[in-house]
Design goal:
The protein is built from 15 helices and no strands. It is mostly helical and 317 residues long. Helix 5 (60-82) runs parallel beside helix 7, helix 6 runs antiparallel to helix 7 and helix 9 runs antiparallel to helix 10 (173-194).
C-alpha cells in the first residue's frame, strides 16, 4: 500500500518535461503507423498498385526484422556517443528517406530495401532514442513518463489505419507516402532544435524536482558502483533474459496487430466492422498505458511488468 501511495504522489513536471513526453508520444505514434499498423494497409496497397503477390511481400517481414536487430544495435552504439537527441534526429531523417523510397518502389528489391530501412530507423528513433531520452529526463519517474508517451502506440492504432485507408483512396499511394516522409523530416528538424539530452541543459531538474526537495538514492551519483561496459553487459544473464522476454512479447504483439485487418477481413468481417474493432482495442490501450506507467512507478519495473504480462497472457490461457 505504501508503494501505491508513493506512486500516486503529484509529479512536478515543467512545460519542458511535458514537451519531452509529447515528443515521445509523436515518435511512438509514427513508429507504429509506419511499421505495425502500416503493415495492415501499406503493403497490401503497394501489392495492388504493382500487381505483386501480397503473401510473397509479407515473407520479407522476417528479413526486415533481422536487419533491424543489427541496425538498432548500431543506433544504440551511436546513441552512446552522440546522445539521444542527435540519434533521434538521424533516425527520423533515415525513416523519412526510406518511406519516400517505399512510396516509389517499382520492384521487389527496392521494396525490400525500403522496408528494412523503415523498420530499422523507426524502431531506433522510438525504442532506442525515446528510451534513452526518457531515462535521462525521468530517472525516478520513467514509468509515469513512458506511460504517457506510449499512448502514442494505441493512438496510432486507433487513427492511422483509417487515415491511411482514406488517404490512399482519395490521394493515391505515392503522394500519401511522400506526405509521411515530409512529416518525418520535419520531426527530425524539430527534434534537433527543441530536444536536449538532459534536463540540465535547459536549466531543468530530472523528474522536475530540485535535489533539495528529496534525496535521490543513486549509487552511480555517489560513485559507489562501477560503470558497466557493453562487454560486461553481454556477460550478465539477466540482461539476456530481459531482451528475450521483451522480444517474445514484441513478436506476438507485432504478429497480431500487424495482420489484424487482413485476418478479420478474411474471417468475414466488413472493412467498417474491422476498423471499429481495431479502434475499440486501441482506445482501451490508450486508457491502459498511463495506468500501467503508474503501476510500474509504484511497484517497480519488475513487478509492474509481471502484472502487465499477466493481463497480456490471460486471453491465451
Amino acid at each position: 500500500m505504501e508503494a501505491l501511495k508513493k506512486g500516486r504522489r503529484k509529479h512536478t513536471f515543467s512545460r519542458r518535461h511535458w514537451m519531452v513526453i509529447l515528443f515521445g508520444f509523436l515518435l511512438y505514434y509514427f513508429c507504429n503507423a509506419c511499421m505495425t499498423d502500416g503493415m495492415n494497409v501499406i503493403a497490401p496497397r503497394l501489392a495492388r498498385e504493382q500487381g505483386w503477390d501480397y503473401a510473397y511481400m509479407l515473407s520479407f517481414a522476417t528479413l526486415s526484422g533481422c536487419v533491424s536487430v543489427f541496425g538498432q544495435l548500431g543506433f544504440g552504439v551511436l546513441c552512446r556517443f552522440l546522445g539521444p537527441r542527435k540519434t533521434i534526429s538521424l533516425a527520423l531523417a533515415g525513416a523519412g528517406a526510406f518511406i519516400l523510397l517505399y512510396g516509389f518502389a517499382g520492384s521487389i528489391p527496392v521494396y525490400v530495401i525500403a522496408l528494412c530501412g523503415v523498420v530499422t530507423c523507426s524502431s531506433s528513433y522510438a525504442y532506442v532514442g525515446v528510451g534513452a531520452l526518457l531515462g535521462n529526463w525521468f530517472p525516478e519517474k520513467k514509468g509515469i513518463a513512458s506511460g504517457y508517451s506510449s499512448i502514442g502506440i494505441p493512438a496510432s492504432t486507433a487513427t492511422s489505419v483509417a487515415a491511411f485507408t482514406f488517404a490512399f483512396s482519395h490521394a493515391g499511394f505515392t503522394p500519401v507516402m511522400a506526405g509521411v516522409s515530409v512529416a518525418l523530416f520535419a520531426l527530425s528538424v524539430l527534434a534537433f532544435v527543441l530536444l536536449r539530452d538532459t534536463p540540465e541543459e535547459l536549466g531543468e531538474y530530472p523528474d522536475g524536482k530540485a535535489p533539495a526537495e528529496e534525496k535521490r538514492q543513486d549509487a552511480a551519483a555517489e560513485g559507489s558502483g562501477k560503470q558497466l561496459t557493453f562487454r560486461d553487459m553481454l556477460g550478465i544473464r539477466e540482461m539476456w533474459l530481459v531482451g528475450i522476454i521483451f522480444g517474445l512479447f514484441s513478436v506476438v504483439t507485432t504478429g497480431v496487430m500487424g495482420q489484424f485487418v487482413i485476418r478479420h477481413r478474411q474471417s468475414g468481417f466488413s472493412e467498417s466492422e474491422t476498423l471499429a474493432l481495431l479502434t475499440a482495442c486501441a482506445l482501451i490501450g490508450m486508457a491502459g498505458s498511463p495506468i500501467q506507467g503508474r503501476l510500474e512507478n509504484a511497484l517497480g519495473t519488475r513487478r509492474g511488468f509481471q502484472v502487465c504480462c499477466g493481463i497480456f497472457l490471460r486471453p491465451y490461457c
